[in-house]
Amino acid sequence: MTKSPLQKRYGIRTPQSLKSPTSTTQEQSYGVKVENDVVVIPFQSKQGQTAFAPQWNYFIAELMMPDIDINSLKDFLLSKEDEVKSIKGLPVNDCGTGLGDDSTTARFLYYNVFDWDHPEIDKLKTGVKEFHRMYYTNILSTDSVPTIRARCWMNIMRKGDRVTKHLHGYEESAYLSGHFTVASNNTKTIYLNPYEHATEREILLRVSNGEPPSNGNLYGAENVPGKLTIFPNYVPHMTTEHEFDEPRITLAFELTPFEDLAGRYKDGKSIKMEGETDLPVL
Ligand SMILES: [Fe+2]
Question: What's the pTM?
Answer without folding.
Answer: 0.87
